[in-house]
Amino acid sequence: xxxxxxxxxxxxxxxxxxxxxxxxxxxxxxxxxxxxxxxxxxxxxxxxxxxxxxxxxxxxxxxxxxxxxxxxxxxxxxxxxxxxxxxxxxxxxxxxxxxxxxxxxxxxxxxxxxxxxxxxxxxxxxxxxxxxxxxxxxxxxxxxxxxxxxxxxxxxxxxxxxxxxxxxxxxxxxxxxxxxxxxxxxxxxxxxxxxxxxxxxxxxxxxxxxxxxxxxxxxxxxxxxxxxxxxxxxxxxxxxxxxxxxxxxxxxxxxxxxxxxxxxxxxxxxxxxxxxxxxx
Length: 280
Description:
Blueprint: H1 4-21, E1 44-51, E2 57-59, E3 64-67, E4 70-71, H2 78-92, E5 96-101, E6 112-118, E7 130-131, H3 132-138, E8 143-144, H4 154-167, E9 180-181, H5 187-192, E10 196-203, E11 206-209, E12 213-217, E13 227-231, E14 250-257, E15 262-264, E16 271-273
Parallel strand pairs: 3-6, 9-10, 13-15
Antiparallel strand pairs: 1-2, 1-5, 2-3, 4-8, 5-6, 6-7, 10-14, 11-12, 12-13, 14-16
Helix pairs in contact: 1-2, 3-4
Signal peptide: 1-20
Protein name: Nuclease
InterPro entries: SNase_OB-fold_sf
């Protein structure tokens, strides 16, 4: 049984997390871009009636919009999810927003995957519109998730996330969410015990291949290391990247861990090279 003291500490930690993470000043949110692939261009006005437990926006005309490209804490972290949802609701519910759909059709759950723009919470309706996703990412209240539907905003969302991730702000302050340095002792075994979206950092030691895929190995013995899988049929979307040339490169990879210490990637947003060397 948990003691009252432990419950109090956990509750205070959640409260401190939210209070410290949310950008409360209008000046802290840069104005949304007006043109380009991740911008206000094509966005239409809407009004938020509620935000549900899955962080979906319920609009007053009955539509539902999903904040595509964002990864929130899992359901078992109920207090943390509730705190983030409360702050998001206090900002958006009852307010006019601008909604830019990433696709012309709804997803299989009947939602419109979208980018959302709103005036900052304390800036008044006359303040410049800001990206809601960028606000959540810069506060560390969500992580960028490389959804294919949100590919147009991948660069902008990664840039918004970077300061919080590098400073260990919000979710990034917690061991469940911060990047895993695969070279650290016990990191591979730790990764094998995890499920869900993970961010992994390390150097590519070797590249293997088969008829169906390339395998980027982050250890000297591939059977005992972390591996990134790129199916040959997906290689074209990575542009000029030649997998065999990646040996020695340091990369940050994000994606789903499902069976063992491996992530299959299918889009460039799932792998970032963090050594400053141009990709060949």
